[in-house]
Amino acid sequence: MQELQVNKESCFSVLMAVYTKEQPLFFREALQSVFEQSLTPNEVVLVKDGPLTEELDQVIADFSNERKQLRVIALEENRGLGEALRVGLDACSFDLVARMDSDDICKPNRFEKQVTFLKEHQEVTIVGSWIEEFSDCKEKIEAIRKLPQEDKKLKVFMKWRNPFNHMTVMFRKKDILAVGGYQPFYLLEDYYLWNRLANANYCFANIGDSLLWARGGYTMLERRGGWKYVVSESRLLKYMYSSGRINIAEFGINLIMKSVIRLIGKRLRHTVYTFFLRKKVKCDK
Which of 70, 119, 240, 267 is the 20 to 30 A CA-CA neighbour of 255? Predict the structure, then answer.
């Protein structure tokens, strides 16, 4: 494994952002999973999106003392995920960059698999993976979000749904910057970026395996409902239509379906996600 890490082609950064409402325990588990990898990152760029709680700052202090790879960038005020990631990406030292959320858990071989994939597929700009979702503990998986793997299928799929699990992606920084990088786009900064990459004919891929445990449940669904989502998604659909990614019929169907899902109650939304937008998993534990 050491050979991979000294090979310049295998050097990579991890890009994360954290804000004040994150749970310290979840944040600690996320960072721990980033460092406890079969292929460890050469640096972890962590953006503090505004002032944090004392407990979150303590987690950062603990890891800073133990892990020299951790680089912390502090924003004076909360600017939102899109702006935090834009600042963080600019600070990343390596062309390969892996995204990670501050409350999920990487599987131990995630980075090794993605670095190997991108080395073997030089035509691919961005590679993601499937995720296993849980509410209480990662040993009790509730659902799996599986996505297409090949570029052509992903470009069709993205007309209707996000083609990547954002917290799983690894990409080539130079290609991301070539289309303008991360930009503020309320709640959908990743989906907006993928569309710009597709419009510039960059190649997509997903690994057909789950490389991350993602926190789901009602808390996640609460964040994915309401008028703010409807407004943001309508803006994105207008962009997709104006750029030729979808036609007028696809625009209308998308707008109706997405608006209904965002405005129904969280329990009904949970049912829709579980039975129609995820593969449900039976757990005996």
Answer: 267
3-state secondary structure of 271: helix
Domain ranges of the chain: 2-215, 218-279
Task: Report pLDDT digits (tens) over 53-66.
Answer: 999 999 999 999 99
CA distance readout (Å), 256 to 234, 237, 249, 259, 262: 10, 11, 11, 5, 10
Fold of 2-215: Spore Coat Polysaccharide Biosynthesis Protein SpsA; Chain A (3.90.550)
3-state SS record for 240-268: HHHCCCCCHHHHHHHHHHHHHHHHCCHHH
